[in-house]
Amino acid sequence: MIRTIPVTPFQDQKPGTSGLRKKVPVFQQAGYSEAFIQSIFDSLDGFEGKSLVIGGDGRFYNREVIQTAIRMAAANGFGRVLVGQGGILSTPAASHLIRKTKAFGGLILSASHNPGGPTEDFGIKYNISNGGPAPEKITEAIYQRTKNIDRYLIADFDDVDLDKIGVFEAGGMTIEVLDPVADYAELMETLFDFDAIRALVAGGFKVAFDAMHAVTGPYAREILVRRLGVDPALVFNATPLEDFGGHHPDPNLVHAKALYDLMMGPDAPDFGAASDGDGDRNLIIGKGIFVTPSDSLALLAANAHLAPGYKAGLKGIARSMPTSGAADRVAAKLGVEMHETPTGWKFFGNLLDAGRCTICGEESAGTGSDHVREKDGLWAVLLWLNILAVRRQSMLEIVKDHWAEYGRTYYSRHDYEAIETDRANNLMAALEEKLDRLPGLQTGSLTIEKADSFTYHDPVDGSVSRNQGLRIFFEGGARLVYRLSGTGTSGATLRIYMERYEPDPARHDQETQAALAPLIKAAEALAEISKRTGRDAPTVIT
Fold first, then answer.
1. CA nearest neighbour of 106 among 75, 136, 137, 84
2. Distance CA 539, CA 252 (A)
3. How far apart are CA 159 and CA 174, in angstroms?
4. Which DSSP letter does residue 222 get?
């Protein structure tokens, strides 16, 4: 039986960078989740009888919304739903499953690296048939539909047993509950030399991994421990919890401090890594050295040919605009295309589908390749392990060799979280208004060369994305970027990105914040941060 339930539009369902994210109590409002899911289905054509992938990161409210989404998929005419056991499916694994099964698309229930729990964050994102996040034309259509949605369709049948692997029939639709790890693990074995990594580990190389009580715990147990022989005692927080153990599942130096302290200690393992809530981000730390995401992208691109899946070389490299220029120098040396896109993995999808790039990365700890259409935390960990297994050098040696060859880009991001939205918008507006007057201005020891608001022209489909961040370039190659983040759920997050290129190896051992001190002062002075936000210091420095 299919029911048609009247619903009144909600005025706050505009998708952000990665779908719709709000606090759990917002999604728990009667009809709220249903209105957004129905708006997704109403914005799509041609899915009658087709397959839909549904999965999430295990956070609070996942199971309830998965049951709702299954019933709504049946009512709207999908022929099959594929769902991860326990409702668990990492974002990259969902992308792979969509591609492997040739599904019409997928619903990913996650708020990524944001906290989970009864009063914390939840999210719903739609991915298209290539496995990647819906492009802006679809998310805009979804938003427009949310503004006048008047009903949703839902089928009446009992809850699906999400913990039991098997194939079920309900509501005239096939429901397949499957192992969330198996297909993804098999894909990883085609890309990387597991024998070489196993030999490295068997020889005494110690690997630590923090799953942060999030989705990658089961993946780490299967791939790192069972298939590669990593010591299970060094795989931390591997059981997904609805509230991530009360922690913030963001793999940065603040929220993964325990791992950082371990890797900087006297008895540190050789390699350390962490992943986030839905498994698409990564933190990479060697014994005694943190590798920034921007450097990690450059290093992975420079060494990717050492892994079987990339032995033929790269078609190109892509990075988000706020990511440092370290990868640009690798692309130049390799003689391949380099693409600078707005933040948001959906912008890489066209480039990957068109064969214009192989490896992509964002400074916010996301890297990936053309194997899926999402960033992929465990993929980055495995590529690093493959490189280490072939080169047989320490992380520190590999990184220093890279800097000696390409130069070092000192890089940092300062986040001012949960600023009152009007204040954040006013700060950006005031800075943008004076961009044209900045060239030639001296601030401290720095002289501004040029400034602009970043506009992206997609080289594949010709689409244009404006207002993607404010950029200030200084003589000598330093750069500041100001951007409001679209991934939070409270107020606005102002992100300031700072980078300075240093070609001289004799100057590669400076402390990062000290090396960037003139830029940090310039960032405050140019945007009048303390005056306009009331904040004297960033919330998080990475």
1. 84
2. 13
3. 14
4. I
**H-helix segments, 212-269:** 216-220, 257-264
Query: What is 1-38 written as a DSSP string?
Result: -EEEEE-PPPS----BTTBEEEEHHHHTSTTHHHHHHH
List all residues 6 or more positions away from 177 whose beta carbon is below 8 Å from its beta carbon: 83, 84, 85, 160, 161, 162, 163, 164, 165, 166, 167, 168
Rounded Cα distance, 334 and 316, in Å? 9
Catalytic residue positions, numbered:
112
Distance from first CA to last CA of the chain, Å, rounded?
A: 52
**Amino acid (one-letter) located at 371:** H
CB proximity list for 492: less than 8 A, separation 6 or greater: 418, 419, 420, 421, 423, 424, 425, 484, 485
Report which of 222, 223, 230 is spatially closest to residue 200, judged by C-alpha positions. Answer: 230
Mean pLDDT (the chain, rounded): 96
Q: CA-CA distance, 510 to 518, in Å (whole number)?
A: 14
> How many other CB atoms are found less than 10 A from the CB of residue 442?
11
Q: For residues 193 and 311, what is the distance between their CA atoms, to the nearest angstrom?
A: 11
What pLDDT digit, counting tens, does each position of 458-511 carry?
A: 999 999 999 999 999 999 999 999 999 865 567 899 999 999 999 999 999 999
pLDDT score recorded for residue 346:
86
Any idea which residue has 């899915």 for tokens?
Answer: 47
Residue burial 471-481, b: 16+ Cβ < 10 Å; e: rest = bbbbeeebbbb
Contacts of 55 (CB under 8 A, 6+ apart): 66, 83, 84, 87, 88, 89, 90, 93, 94, 97, 106, 107, 108, 109, 180
Please tell me the distance from the alpha carbon of residue 12 to that of residue 154, in angstroms, as a whole number: 22
CA–CA separation, 527 and 535 (whole Å): 12
**Residue 81 in this model has a pLDDT that exceeds 70:** yes
Angstrom distances, CA of residue 534 to CA of 91, 266, 431, 481: 37, 40, 16, 20
Alpha-carbon distance of 459 to 271, in angstroms, equals 38
Return the structure tokens found at 463.
């689409």
Print the SS3 string covering 43-66.
CCCCCCCCEEEEEECCCCCHHHHH
Q: What is the mean pLDDT of residues 512-532?
A: 97
Residue-wise pLDDT for 89-120, tens only, equals 999 999 999 999 999 999 999 999 999 999 99
Q: What is the pTM for the complete model shown?
A: 0.95
- Residues 483, 364: Cα–Cα separation, whole Å: 13
* Residue 328 to residues 125, 361, 457, Cα–Cα distance (Å): 31, 12, 18
